Amino acid sequence: MKQDVSNVFVIAQKEFADNLWSPRFISLVSIFTLIVFSFSYRAVINGRNIFELGFLDVAQIIAVFLPLLGIALGFDTIVKERKSASLNILLTHPVYRDNIITGKILGAMITLALVVCVAVASSVGTMLIISGVQVSWIELNRVLIFAVLTYLYLSIFLGLGIFTSIIAKNAVSSLIFGISTWLILCVVYGAIIMIIAIVATGQSPLNLDNNEEVLDLNAHLQKLSPVHHYSEPAIGHPGLSTGGFSKGGTHIVYGIFDTRYTLSQWLDEYSTNIVVLAVTPIIPLIMSFAVFLRQDIIAV
To answer: Helices marked H in the chain — which ranges?
Structure first.
C-alpha cells in the first residue's frame, strides 16, 4: 500500500512538472492571464467595484474561456503516453494501472489549482489594488470561496479532457472533441437552448405580453449547463454563454461578492448550484478511472 501511494505521488509529480514547463501550457496561461488582467483593469478604470456588482465582465471571461485551459491540461494526458509506448514500458515496472491514472489525475488537478490561483490573483488582485478598496478578512474569505468555485468549475472540463484522452485514438481527435464540447457548453449553449425554447413553445422572448412559457423553459434548460451552476453562485447571473436570453430578478443575493448579505444567506440561496459544481467533476474522473482500468494499453 505504501509503495502504491509512493508511485502515485511520483507520477503526479512528473505530470505536474511536464505541464508546468510545457511551452503550450505557459503560452496559454500567459495569454489568459493577460486577457483577465486587461478586463479587470478596464473594470476598475470604469469605476466598478468588485464588491458592488462590478465583476460581471471578468467573470464572463473566466466562465467562457478558462475551461479551454482545463481541456488543454487533460486532452493528451493518456493518449500521448500510449502513442509513445511509454505506458507499455511503465507497466513493466511494479506500477499498477490504478497508480498511473490516479497519479495523472492528481498531477493535472494540482496544475489546475495553480492556474486558478494565477487567474484569481490577476483578476481580483488587480481590481482591489488599483481601486484601493479596503478589504477585511471577511472579503478575503469571499475571494477564497470564489477561487474554490472556479476550481470546481474548471475541474469539470479537466475531467472531460482526461476522459477524451483515454478513449480517443490520437491527441488531435481528443482535442477536437474537447473544443467541440467547450463551444457547445460555454460559448453557444445560451443561443441553442433559446432556439429550442422558441421552437417548442412558439413564443418569442422579446414579446413582453406573451413570453412566460419560453422564458421558463429556457431557465430550466440552462440548468443543464455547468456555466449556469458556476455563474449563479459567483455573480448571481443565470448564464454567461453568448446568444442567450435570461429571465432576471429572481435572486436576492447577487453572487459571492454581494457583501450586503452574509455568507450563510449566500449559501442558502445557491446550495443547489454548489452541490452540482462539487459533484459534477467526479463523474468524468470516475469514468476515466473505470475505462482506463479496462482498456488495452497498446501503442498504435
So the answer is: 2-20, 23-45, 56-65, 67-74, 79-83, 86-90, 97-131, 137-167, 171-182, 189-201, 212-222, 226-235, 263-279, 282-294
Q: For the chain, how many structural domains are there in total? A: 1
Q: Number of C-alpha atoms within 13 angstroms, CB side, residue 3?
A: 4
What residues have CB less than 8 Å from 246, skipping those under 6 apart? Answer: 190, 218, 219, 222, 237, 238, 239
Alpha helix (H) residue ranges in 132-186: 137-167, 171-182
**473594470: which residue's cell?**
43
Q: Is residue 299 part of a domain?
A: no
CB 79 within 8 A of CB 171: yes
Q: What is the CA radius of gyration of the chain?
A: 21
Question: What's the CA gap between 285 and 288, in Å, rounded?
Answer: 5
Assess whether pLDDT exceeds 90 at residue 274. yes
| Residue numbers of the domain that contains 272 | 2-294
Q: Is residue 244 part of a domain?
A: yes
How far is residue 221's CA from residue 21's CA, in Å, rounded to a whole number? Answer: 40
Is 202 part of any domain? yes
Selected residue with higher pLDDT from 91 and 236:
236
Domain annotation covers residue 300: no
Q: How distant, in Å, are the alpha carbons of 128, 244, 251 from that of 142?
A: 13, 28, 18
Among residues 177, 161, 175, 169, the alpha carbon closest in space to that of 111 is found at 161
Q: What is the mean pLDDT of the chain?
A: 79
